[in-house]
C-alpha cells in the first residue's frame, strides 16, 4: 500500500468519527470499483457481484465504529467472506435441488400402465366389496376407504367395537376367497 493510500486511510478513519456520511461516500468512491471487479472475477455474474458489494458496504456502515485500522483490509476481507457465503449457500441450494429432483423422479414413476392397472384393481375391489352384506360392506368401507378407526365406526353406527372387528374380519375373509391379490392390496395398502 502506498503512502498516499495510508494517508487516505488514516484521514478516512478520522472522518468516520466526525462526518460518517462524507467518509462513507469517499470510501465507497475509493474502493467500490476494485471490490466489484474482485467479486465479479470470483462469482462470474455482475448482478451477484453487485449484490455482494452492496452487502459489504451495508455491513461496513453498520460496523463503521469498529473499523480503526485498515479500511482496505476490512472491506476486502468482508468481500471474501461474502463470496464464501455465496458459494456455501449455492452448494446447499444445489444439494436441495438434486434431492428434490430425485424425489420428484420417484413420484413421477407412475406410468400410464401402472395407473390403468391400479384403476382396474380398484374397480375389481369395488365389485367384490359390493357383494358383501350391507352392514358388513358399510363397516369395511368406513375402515378401509375412509380411514376411520374401529372406535369411530362403532360410535357412528352405534354398534360395539367387537362387532366392527368381526365385520372387517368377515369382509377380508370374503375378499380372500374371491381374489388373493385384492385381499393383499386391501390388507397392506390401507
Architecture overview:
- The chain is built from 9 helices and no strands.
- It is elongated.
- The chain has helices at 3-18, 20-43, 46-62, 71-107, 112-130, 134-144, 150-157, 161-178, 180-188.
- The relative contact order is 0.06.
- The protein is an all-alpha fold.
Number of helices: 9
What is the alpha-carbon Rg in Å? 35 Å
User: Order of SSEs, N→C?
Assistant: HHHHHHHHH
Average pLDDT confidence is: 80
Highlighted features:
mainly alpha; 190 residues
Quick description:
With 190 residues, this protein is an all-alpha fold. Helices cover 84% and strands 0% of the residues. Helix 1 crosses helix 2.
Write the layout of secondary structure elements.
Elements: H1 3-18, H2 20-43, H3 46-62, H4 71-107, H5 112-130, H6 134-144, H7 150-157, H8 161-178, H9 180-188
Amino acid at each position: 500500500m502506498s503512502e498516499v493510500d495510508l494517508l487516505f486511510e488514516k484521514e478516512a478513519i478520522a472522518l468516520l468519527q466526525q462526518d460518517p456520511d462524507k467518509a462513507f461516500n469517499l470510501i465507497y468512491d475509493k474502493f467500490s470499483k476494485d471490490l466489484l471487479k474482485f467479486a465479479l472475477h470470483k462469482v462470474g455474474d455482475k448482478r451477484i457481484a453487485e449484490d455482494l458489494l452492496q452487502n459489504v458496504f451495508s455491513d461496513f456502515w453498520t460496523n463503521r465504529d469498529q473499523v480503526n485500522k485498515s479500511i482496505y483490509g476490512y472491506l476486502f476481507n468482508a468481500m471474501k467472506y461474502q463470496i464464501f457465503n455465496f458459494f456455501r449457500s449455492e452448494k446447499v441450494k444445489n444439494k436441495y435441488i438434486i434431492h428434490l429432483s430425485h424425489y420428484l423422479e420417484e413420484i413421477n414413476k407412475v406410468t400410464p400402465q401402472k395407473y390403468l392397472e391400479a384403476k382396474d384393481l380398484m374397480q375389481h375391489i369395488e365389485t367384490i366389496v359390493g357383494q358383501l352384506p350391507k352392514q358388513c360392506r358399510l363397516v369395511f368401507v368406513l375402515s378401509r376407504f375412509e380411514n376411520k378407526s374401529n372406535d369411530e365406526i362403532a360410535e357412528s353406527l352405534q354398534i360395539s367395537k367387537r362387532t366392527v372387528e368381526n365385520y372387517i374380519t368377515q369382509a377380508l375373509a370374503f375378499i380372500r376367497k374371491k381374489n388373493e391379490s385384492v385381499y393383499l392390496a386391501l390388507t397392506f395398502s390401507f
